[in-house]
Amino acid sequence: MRVIQAKRLLALTLTMAGALSLSACIVPQHYVDPKLGETQMSGLKKPTDPQPIQMLFEFRTKGVANARATTAVKPRVEAELAKSGLFSAVSAEPVASGRKLAISIDNVEPEGQRAGQKGFVTGLTFGLDGNTISDDYVCTFTYLEPGHEPVTQEVRHTLYTTVGITNPPKGLTPAPLADAFATVIRQALDKGLAEIDQASDIAQ
């Protein structure tokens, strides 16, 4: 009887060890798409007499306003605008000049991808059937100044997540989700600000 119990305990231990090993394979890894890269903000035209700007910001998930994400991401957006040197101040309220910069970031699901279904399949196979999931971010910038036509620019960026046993995106280094997300947002904002700077009269 003791021998049987010992064998059962050993089998249970091995099963649990195997399950833990497989579950480790399901731990997600996050990567920033390298196509957009860093924007050299020192190359902006930058006005000699910067003016305040009213910033309007909204974060969306598949086109639907996401209030919680808007609150979480908005300070990052304000910080990037302030750091750019394009404006003397960034305000949530209207400014005397009437200038506005409306920014939206929409976390969209790439066409043909069902992220939830991919994750479900990976879970069923205990990580043996790995997947790479893409989070696409569409960042839209609209600069408004009284007496001028609106200037709109769009920037796209991508965050990759691998789940299960699969090859990581070639040449990319994984990063914690918070760091990878912050990099995606910062790079998209910097690129959008540079494009708005080139296409508008901010520097005048």
Structural class: alpha/beta
Q: Major sheet: size, sense and barrel closure?
A: 7 strands, mixed
Beta-strand fraction estimate = 25-35%
Query: Which range best describes the helical content: under 10%, 10-25%, 25-40%, 40-55%, 55-70% or over 70%?
Result: 25-40%
The CATH class designation is Alpha Beta
What is the count of DSSP helices, taking H or I runs of 4+ residues? 4
Task: Please name the CATH architecture.
Answer: 3-Layer(aba) Sandwich
| Count of individual domains | 1
State Rg.
Answer: 23 Å
Which spans have pLDDT < 50 for at least 5 consecutive residues? 2-25, 116-128
The helix/strand order is: HEEEHEEHEEH
What would the principal axes of the Cα set say about the shape? elongated
The counted number of beta strands is 7
Mean pLDDT equals 82
Write the layout of secondary structure elements.
Blueprint lengths: L1 H24 L3 E4 L18 E11 L2 E2 L1 H18 L2 E5 L8 E9 L6 H10 L6 E14 L6 E13 L13 H23 L5
Parallel strand pairs: 2-4, 2-5
Antiparallel strand pairs: 1-7, 2-3, 5-6, 6-7
Helix pairs in contact: 2-4
